[in-house]
Amino acid sequence: MKNVFRIMLIAAAASLFALPAYAQGAAAQTTASAQDEQAKADLYAKFLQLIKGGAAEQKQASEVGKEYMNKYPSPATDADKQIFDYIKNWVVRYDKAVRDYEFNTSLANKNYQRAFEIGRELLAEQPDNVEVAITLARVALANASDRAPNKSLYPESLRFTRTAVQLIESGKAPAKWEAPLNNRDEALGWFYFTQGLLTAENSPAEAAGYFVKAAQANGATKNQPATYFHLGNAYVKGDYAKAVNAYRAVFPEGKEITEDLKPQYEQLIGQVNAVLDRIIDAYARAIALSTKPDQAKFKAELTNQLTEYHKARFENSTAADVQTLINNVLSRPLPLPGQPVTTPAAASTTPASANAQTPATTPASANDTKPAAAPPNNTKPRQ
Question: Could you tell me the sign of the dihedral formed by the alpha carbons of 185, 190, 196, 198, in that order?
């Protein structure tokens, strides 16, 4: 509260010259008794005394000021209006200073829930305040990137992040962009990424769309291993699981593919392979972009996972084929959901057998890797 006291002390000192005197003529009002006028004068004098004090006194001054405004909401004279307006302006500035201080403190202490409580109030008052929306979206990313995120905050995190994106896309911008959100594109990239994290568990197909947008943004997320790792995971949990389940419903393990079933088989296995191609591409990009020493463990684990998916896609897949894919993947455009992918095949282009073992749908963990550039608030996404 020390900073709040300093802010308010300066504000009070700057406005002392404008302090309205309590008009002598106020006591002459015919509609108010002398006793009421004295009580009003005493309450105002108490307020003036308290605003000169420390943090505790200024907090009490805010309460006294609000009491004054509640008791005397309709100034009868110009002098009364001067006093009422002075008290109101002071209380508004004080409450804003306290709220800003508490908001910044909650951010510094990673008290995301309290930050959201205050941010909710701020956005309710100013729904188009892009600076507040951006700050809340950064909080949403910080929480979602934590190793133990508070998932109860996800619904509101998504709302805040979407608000920030809508405001930025509509042309609004803060007075000054601050690193790592150095410009509009950087901010949008990170906030698309944030929306991907927030929707990945319950809506993986939706999350994949957000990660694709993060990959297309002209900023840091375009070159983040985390972007493509999470994109691959979203495909695994969403489209791939759906395609495999559809295939297995018609062709359970061991079922013979007769001539009359071939058209249906080719359709269903084609859907599986189409998603496999996107998973393979995404994981290969994540590996290719993991060039830092502290990403070595993640890179090795994800390479093993990629190898399994590549074998599921191509019957004669080898380690050399996988490495060739990794070496060249960044030279190709990112495939979009629903579009065919030109994935370099193995030495033999024979697709893996339909009844071959498909890889597990649980993606590799990447908690030990760090992105190439720190996201907002110096947090690191869980890759």
Answer: negative
